[in-house]
Amino acid sequence: MASIPVDIEVQPARNTRVNEIIVIALIAMGLLLFLCLFSYHPNDPSWNAAGESGAHNWV
């Protein structure tokens, strides 16, 4: 079988700095979400009800 030669020029990514900033922001938000979920405590006061004890979560 004969193959047809194809000339494909690979272009470098134009917005590499923007992509890096987006990745760093997503990682930071993921870590924040992990800390929120990992440090959840059912006895923490809610948004609309005051409690006598302080919050136990880390965020």
Per-chain topology:
Layout: H1 16-38
Q: How would you portray this structure in words?
A:
- The chain is an all-alpha fold and 59 residues long.
- The chain contains one helix and no strands.
List the main descriptive attributes of the protein structure presented here.
mainly alpha, rod-shaped, 39% helix, 59 residues
Distance between the termini: 63 Å
The gross shape turns out to be: rod-shaped
Strand content: under 5%
Helix content: 25-40%
Q: Average pLDDT value?
A: 83
Oligomer: single chain
Helix and strand element order: H
Radius of gyration computed on alpha carbons: 24 Å
**Count of DSSP strands:** 0
Number of helices: 1
Which structural class matches the secondary elements?
Answer: mainly alpha
Quick structural overview:
The protein is mainly alpha-helical and 59 residues long.
